[in-house]
Specification:
- The protein folds into two domains: 110 residues, Beta-grasp domain (Ubiquitin-like (UB roll)), CATH 3.10.20.30; 129 residues, Alpha-helical ferredoxin (Fumarate Reductase Iron-sulfur Protein, Chain B, domain 2, Orthogonal Bundle), CATH 1.10.1060.10.
- Helix content is 34%, strand content 13%.
- It contains eight helices and seven strands.
- Strand 6 and strand 7 form a beta hairpin.
- Helix 3 packs antiparallel against helix 5 and helix 5 packs across helix 8.
Length: 251
């Protein structure tokens, strides 16, 4: 049986976006190294609840690395010290027994803090909405999507882009707080497929302009977003969308 672990946690507490936040220190004991980071926070919240104090607010849903809501900044890294994982897939065996762990929310003007470790990422939703819908010419007969011929290379790239879960790690990792990796992935997954061809030029203009309107910074070109992305989405999509944007601006 593996030895149970103890940690000193310095967790950001903030009542709302207008309140002044601060780090509060907690000690948590008897944590299994096979526990996920969120399970460890559950144990801590049970401890806090037993002491009749206000529990720590943090966001989560599926806990399977799919939904992208478990967005935490841990020891200076988005989603923590492991690679290609979300916070819910981060296990306590990645830390040393007795280690001090700093836990913060995403730090970005476009992601205002709601409470403690929860931020408002609805700016991502508004960017997606600005992309509009997909139109398909049916010529009076509905076309089965499975019979539309698509080159494998483009299909693979479109599916790779579509793995983006919109967690916001790219924004948190970027020194300019750019959302370019997220936006380029969402644009590319449609632009690379024939189903997204009709609104292709309009979509890239609308989504990039909306990103700027929401207050995200410009791309820093440091590729920090690619390193911290839990799905390993490549910055090649940023180059692709830059070309799309310039071409669409002139035509």
């Amino acid at each position: 049986m593996k030895e149970l672990m103890s940690f000193k946690l310095k967790i950001w507490r903030q009542k709302n976006n207008h309140d002044k936040g601060y780090f509060q220190t907690y000690i948590v004991n008897n944590i299994s190294p096979n526990s996920s980071f969120l399970e460890m926070l559950d144990v801590l919240n049970n401890q806090i609840l037993f002491e009749k104090e206000e529990t720590i607010s943090f966001d989560h849903d599926c806990r399977e690395g799919i939904c992208g809501t478990c967005s935490l900044y841990i020891n200076g890294r988005a989603h923590g010290p492991d690679n290609l994982v979300t916070t819910c897939q981060l296990y306590m065996r990645n830390f040393c027994n007795g280690e001090t762990i700093y836990v913060e929310p995403w730090r970005a003007r476009s992601f205002p803090i709601i409470k403690d470790l929860i931020v408002d990422r609805s700016s991502f939703d508004r960017i997606i909405m600005s992309g509009g819908f997909i139109s398909v010419d049916t010529f009076g007969k509905t076309i089965d999507g499975n019979i539309i011929p698509i080159p494998k290379e483009k299909a693979d790239k479109a599916f790779d882009a579509a793995t983006c879960i919109g967690c916001g790690a790219c924004v948190a990792a970027c020194k300019n707080r750019s959302a370019m990796l997220f936006v380029s992935a969402k644009i590319s997954q449609f632009s690379l497929l024939p189903q997204g061809a009709i609104e292709r030029k309009k979509r890239v203009l609308n989504m990039i302009n909306k990103m700027d309107e929401e207050g995200f910074g410009s791309c820093s070109n440091t590729k920090a977003c690619e390193i911290e992305c839990p799905k390993g989405i490549s910055t090649e999509y940023i180059s692709f969308v830059n070309k799309e944007y310039i071409s669409s601006s002139f035509t």
